[in-house]
Amino acid sequence: MIAPEHEAYRLIGTPRFGGIQIISDHASNRVPEGIDLGIDPVLLNQHIAVDIGVGAIAEIMARRAGIAAFCGNVSRLVCDFNREEGQTSIIPLVSDGHNIPGNALDADGFEARYARFFRPYHAALSQLLDDVPPALILSLHSFTPCLATSDEQRPWHIGILYNEDDRAARIAIPLLEAEGLVVGDQQPYSGKILNATMNRHAEADGRPYLGVEIRQDLIADAEGQAQWAERLARLCNKIALDMPQT
Hints:
By secondary structure, this protein is of the alpha/beta class. The protein is built from five helices and ten strands. The protein has helices at residues 54-61, 107-131, 167-177, 196-201, 222-242, and strands at residues 5-6, 9-12, 20-24, 67-72, 94-95, 98-99, 136-143, 158-161, 183-185, 209-215. The protein has an eight-stranded mixed beta sheet with strand order 1-2-4-3-7-10-8-9, sandwiched between helices. Strands 5-6 form a two-stranded antiparallel sheet. The longest helix has 25 residues, at 107-131. The model has no long low-confidence stretch (mean pLDDT 96). One of its GO terms (molecular function) is hydrolase activity. Keywords: Hydrolase.
């Protein structure tokens, strides 16, 4: 079994064979000692640095038997785990119009950061899923109520994302709609475009997964986080029972 905490990740709760395994790549806004991003610290509480609300939801869900959470332990500005192997955007130079001067690394600096965070994160996640295969993976993210470049409000309460494997999505969408929610099928963007962690650790091995994006204003406080944690736990257990096998 992997160590419960590493500077690249945290494992919360006890993974169970046939249980629910949460994966939250962008759960933290932590900047480790020795790294200076060169940005206004206020930005670390915004979406460019962290998926607002998801860390708390993962922790609440992982208190339940049969659910565990594997969470990124550094800001996505330090290392974006939801990127394909070797992409330069793993260590972003610009995010949402903001320059990240501390990420202007030479080749050796890039490799050192990559080896320190990206490789251990994905190696540990691979081992975890091999050691304790879950019935369902929940890929947990959040999205902004509107784009920085527009005042138009995004109407979806939750988006369901997937690439080729839509087994869980097809079950989840009508269940969520039955609760009166506005559900985005491949919205606010498509999982066929950005699905790196699930492509690598779920689709590549035929592991069932549900990719979700929750609108951040709904989970910005403790009440919303508790409500969505309960909803997602209930939803994931239902999907795990009803999931068609490949």
